[in-house]
């Protein structure tokens, strides 16, 4: 490359940083291509691609293909990383998200190879954008946070930008208190002369206060932004939309429509098929819904949905379904309304937008479409979220609904034959309360927690509290050979395969009008997941070898000790099946997280083997186990207590006399962990929360070597 031409191209490259895109294109067009080498032409094309992308000119497919091909076979890894990044941007803009993700991932790997952390951070920000478009808000936040951690502390401008984006996605995901804290933190270092940052800050705070129900404060922040909006078309649209939305929440629907129409006019003139148009029309549908003008509400909801589906804006799609459900309910179309509410709730759950999910549950619960058990469950789940974010106006509304139901609803009382669930700690009391409420609703439940925490027991407890007339059918999917799973679950006709000497109903059929408990659901093969998903949607099963569909109606409870979201990221578990089986998640903590339950459990386990002890005696026994980690959780504690009872001849005094000393348990615990980790003292010390020196001292003390 010529030194003078290289210098010229590098000076043009610097213009990209200052966002002088038109000037970049002008200077490139002034170059004499005949004088450029092949390498210089590729560099020139690289700059031209970025400038065209920035000004919205996407007629660059040929240029991209040519430039990628050139840099792919050179050692210029930095430029190959750049062109793959630009290709990813182009693919996002034209809507090819699958290939965009692949191209951006290639760029990220290349930047990682050359240890360019800024490049990695920029690419991760765009990968986050892809995740948001496809509707995965939690992954969006994770990628942005990872991007932030890669940046140099001196890169103040980029750090502010990413933090601001994280705050926005916190709001979208429903983590509104986190969003407010982050915005306040960023504001300390913002200069008000930076209009764009300051406008974003004011708008986002306005949104947060609207979500909290503090409408006067919301409007105050919107008013502060007005002087900065004169030359900013996009933000003027957002201003009118936010003000209209706040007025909607205050039930000033007529004034809300006026503000929303102002925003719609500006948005339609500039970009008639944009996200903003979809959002404003959806908010107008809500305004007309508030005025009980159902024809206009339906009109704007349908128009908003058409734009949202074109852009694959899943939050807006779900909000439109929610409005359509309310309209269908007004017209007496009960099945349609319930179906639309279910679609909306499932979509919000899948995306991870907790505020939208909770408010949709509240609207569904107060629609009159659900029986008391389902209604209570929807309100309970909504309140759980609003309490976590201290959204007082919704908490009050939900509590008022609970009070209305107080006279008509009977508290759930477990039948006499229901298993006993010991709950002394606040965590377990919450688990039992959730289980009792959810037992009355036809929702799938996913039980999570380590082995031995009581998932099987809780599943049976939920079934018994539900009052279902059918059976409790339990299956451990990991215990069935994969070749036999389909036959076990779905049944078969006579002669369907070798050895099928007679027709047999499957376990799903046997669970009709009852509960089907699918333990170790993480072991379910993908093909079976797809078939189970179909059963849950259609409520019908077909035996192997038959063409007859049989109706089934059962409550599905699943359980796992694995992180299913991690398995989804590894493509080892179906995302659609996961969201279908997890309408409600109940997490059971390990004993180490709820030591308050140990004395009560000891008391109960002793009573089961015919030994009675009071609370103080149970506490004394528990105190001897303080240093024990209970890796087997409740199951291990039960086995230990039963062993002590047998060894003492079921005599409480002998049992106390035979209790191990603290040294005895320390020795047993230490030896177990040393053998587990192949005598790696560092790992044992980490698990016990001790120093390596302490571990060496105890090994000598207990003469383990």
Count of DSSP strands: 9
Q: How much of the sequence is in beta strands?
A: under 5%
In round numbers, the mean pLDDT is 88
**In angstroms, what is the radius of gyration?**
31 Å
Helix/strand-derived class? mainly alpha
Specify the helix fraction band: 55-70%
Largest beta sheet: what is the strand line-up? 2-5-8-1-9
End-to-end distance, in Å? 69 Å
Could you describe the 3D structure shown?
The protein has 705 residues and is mainly alpha-helical. The protein is 66% helix and 5% strand. The protein contains 35 helices and 9 strands. The strands form 3 sheets. A 5-stranded parallel β-sheet has the order 2-5-8-1-9. A hairpin with an 8-residue loop joins β6 (540-541) and β7 (550-551). α7 (117-133) packs antiparallel against α8 and α20 runs antiparallel to α21. The longest helix is centred in the N-terminal third of the chain and has 18 residues, at 156-173.
Write the layout of secondary structure elements.
Layout lengths: L2 H15 L3 H9 L8 H17 L6 H12 L4 H17 L3 H17 L3 H17 L3 H14 L5 H18 L2 H12 L7 H18 L2 H11 L7 H17 L3 H18 L4 H16 L3 H18 L2 H17 L3 H18 L2 H12 L6 H17 L3 H14 L20 H13 L6 E4 L6 H12 L5 E5 L5 H9 E2 L11 E2 L1 H4 L4 E5 L6 H13 L1 E2 L8 E2 L3 E6 L3 H6 L5 H7 L2 E4 L9 H12 L6 H9 L9 H15 L4 H7 L3 H15 L4 H8 L3 H10 L4
Parallel strand pairs: 1-8, 1-9, 2-5, 5-8
Antiparallel strand pairs: 3-4, 6-7
